[in-house]
Amino acid sequence: MNVKVLVTGKNRKIAQDICEHLQSDRGYMTVKCDANKNALFDLMLSELPKVVIICLGDETADSIKVYNVMKEALRRGNITTIVITDETDEKLFMKYTELERALFLSRPVSLFALYEKLNEIEEKLETEKEQTGSAFREFVNENAGTPARRQILVVDDDTEQLYHIKEQLEEFYDVTCVKTGEAAFRFLAKKKCDLILLDYIMPVIDGPEVLRRIRETKEWADVPIIFLTGVSEKKKVIKALTELRPQGYLVKPSKKSEIVSKIIDALEEKENGDRS
Prior knowledge:
Rossmann fold, 5-stranded parallel β-sheet, 2 domains, alpha/beta, 276 residues
């Protein structure tokens, strides 16, 4: 059985060494990826690996949080995550990760232990029997749980654009689409919303005015808002960032990874602000 392995992480030397060994020694299909949110999100969807190896090195809280973009794919894909680390980065990973489960393997890397675990994964995939590798220390994140799906409201007068964004996001979020500012206000009056994607140019009530009214309404004031804009309005939106203080903007059409990454950043920023 030829297992596909995605290798990522800040420690590029170890990542490269592991890729070379897995290819030459075991004949595995390996995909190397920089520790970048957009790249990780895209490759998790396109490559569908069965094993993800994260090579940590000189990490920070922010660099650990980059890997959280893989959370949904890891949960849904029955994917084994192996984290190669030292003691310091291991503690940092446990503190800041949202991944539900991982296997830690210490540096310097024991290829024998790694291959033994990969053998078990192959057997598990073939027989669906769970096994444990004694060289690894399994981390189960009790705080991760199974979070409720976030509610995203998309406001855009372009029906095709609404359909496109809903199609991109509904795998990960509950998505409601409306075509006017008034419809957005009616939705917000009835249901809790975690984030709004708001078209900048709309008839009757434009995006900036919708944002102003939301910020003036106590119950909605702290909902993160990201503007959707065409290339021609980009300069106006950048000016609006300083005046209206949305959580950013996206230029239409945006890639799926760009939209999800921006949403993740905005939601994390709000959560961190709520805790402080």
